[in-house]
Amino acid sequence: MTVILRGHNFKYEIEAVCKLFFPVRSFSFLCLEGSEQYSDPGGDIIVLTREITGESTRLSVFSRLGESSDSLSESISSEAPDFEKACEFILCRLLFMLLRKATGASPEWGMLTGVRPVKLISGLKASGMSDEEICSQLEKNCFVSREKTLLALKTAENQSALISATPKNSVSLYVSIPFCPSRCAYCSFVSQTVAGFYRLMPEYVRRLCEEISLVGEIVRSEGLVLDAVYFGGGTPTSLSAEDLETVMRAVSKSFDLSRLREYTVEAGRPDTVTPEKLRAILDNGGDRISVNPQTLTQSVLDAIGRRHTVEEFFSAYEAAERAGFKRINVDLIAGLPTDSFSGFEKSLRGVLELSPANITVHALSIKRSADLMQGGSETLSAAETSKMIALSNALLSERGYSPYYLYRQKNQLGNQENVGWEIGGTAGVYNVNIMEEIQTVLAVGAGASTKVVSGGKIARFYNPKYPLEYLKKFDETVAARKREAAKKISEALLNDDLNGRAENEEK
Ligand code: SF4
Questions:
Q1: pLDDT tens, 365-378?
Q2: Residue 196 pLDDT grade (very low, low, confident, very high; cuts 50, 70, 90)
């Protein structure tokens, strides 16, 4: 589809709105000066024009999709406050209305395209708006359904106690283990298979421990409090029990864990869970684990290349319970290829029978780099996925679970969301901190990004993406980035503004 931008270059947001309606199509953008002409490329086309004529500015959108064409326009004063933002917003809004009419689709999050709608809504609440005002403003201006706004409001409410209990000058530690036993068909992550990296694993573990110790020194010398630890990936339990123990010991040696509110180790792939690894996690301070079936239908697991069985999930879950874990998270995905509404319902009810403390329900996100896309996406249905998400929101609430964190990804089927649910006050501290961007996260390992929150802004320090690059550039890049992060933290402490809520960049 060709998208022509005349008299402006609001490509990023315009593309995000186009993708709400056409998640797997590609767009070719053409930017023209206001008066510049173009020759019709044929096929589907959208033209978004800004014409500034003295005091008045006309914003218009034309679409030709298949056989039908349509247009909408609006004028504003050229002196309007925050003129560029106002023009961008109006063009996105007109485009949204045109595409909604042309496709018949009505995305429930309306034209909100940001990752963190809860952060946006918390900002509106903090400005003094009532829940009712927030619902009606988002519905009127951005076409967000009442159900979604209420879900975000409930999530914001459930987070608030946890956020206000965040210790002053605290940080979280993220440990990246970017390895998995095999690649899932929907994965777009840089994770490598353990077998493929086997030879270099001892070196990775050694460097990772070195980086952990570096970060420990920063935390000690700046007098920071370690609030949460999160081992993610990839699949951290892809490591052998010995390697996992080595890395976790490096954490307990380098940090004071006495004020930790949470220590999570993801054990996403049930086929990587062993009694020895569970013991290693518990013995080294871990108190929360994630064991993820994604679905309880074997044929769907086979279709997505998970290479484990439904029975293996149940055995891993029971082993974690037997070992003594009180907080277990279970992930499910709505919209998996070959799944069905009834299959998803069976998975959800099956997981509920286990009564886990946390259940996270994701809507499948379609990424171009995923193996899934190579075979096309015709088996996936946005409407079915939306029904699955509606069911999970209703059923989990009915069973006493509360939403405690929520985020959206690009190209999610049905433009839905991912929601973490908890029961009995077991909300995941790290998940809330990272999603609401209220706390500095010191991240170690390949692909990890350290985020220093200060003065309403976030400074990011990236580690090399791939494990091999991480090992090769350890001294020149990884250690150097940590020194830069430490400097930023020192400055923030001097100004007494480490953490707090970073400015809202969300739409
Ligand atoms: S477990 Fe997660 S990171 Fe690993 S291959 Fe599957 S989707 Fe990717």
A1: 887 666 666 655 44
A2: confident
Q: Do the beta carbons of residue 179 and residue 243 sit within 8 Å? A: no
- Closest C-alpha to ligand 1, atom 7: 187
pTM: 0.91
Protein residues whose CB sits closer than 6 Å to any atom of ligand 1: 180, 183-184, 187, 189, 191, 233-235, 268-269
- Domain hosting 227: range is 171-325+437-507
Nearest-CA residue for ligand 1 atom 2 is: 234
Count of residues making up the chain: 507
Whether the per-residue pLDDT at 156 is higher than 60: the answer is yes
Atom of ligand 1 nearest to the CA of 182: 5
DSSP state string for 273-307: --HHHHHHHHHTT--EEE---B-S-HHHHHHTT--
Both 187 and 298 in a single domain? yes
Q: What angle do CA 343, 347, 352 make, to 5 degrees?
A: 145
Instruction: Indicate whether 353 and 466 sit together in one domain.
Output: no
Which tens digit of pLDDT belongs to each residue from 321-335?
999 999 999 999 999
* Residue 189 confidence class, pLDDT cut points 50, 70, 90: confident
